[in-house]
Design a protein that fits this description.
This protein has two helices and three strands, in the order E-H-E-H-E. By secondary structure, the protein is of the alpha+beta class. The longest helix is centred in the N-terminal third of the chain and has 12 residues, at 16-27.
Length: 74
């Protein structure tokens, strides 16, 4: 099975990449943008999807500063 894991900074955690993008967009002519957060998407094929939460907790995401969302697909 192909799974996707979306990993984002937790609310209240400093996101320097998001802040840099938020500052750059108006300089490029894009207005009305706020609350930019940069995350990452991990795609992987797994035989046992029940192992995904453990994979996220132990390796893919840092549970102290990141939230993750598992998006299963076929």
């Amino acid at each position: 099975m192909r799974a996707r894991v979306l990993i984002r900074p937790k609310a209240g955690i400093l996101d320097p990449q998001g802040q840099a993008v938020e500052r750059a967009l108006p300089a490029l002519g894009f207005s009305g943008v706020s609350g930019v957060h940069i995350g990452r998407l991990v795609e992987l094929d797994v035989e046992d999807p029940s192992q995904l939460p453990a994979m996220c907790e132990r390796l893919l995401a840092n549970p102290l500063i990141e939230d993750y969302e598992i998006i299963e697909s076929l």
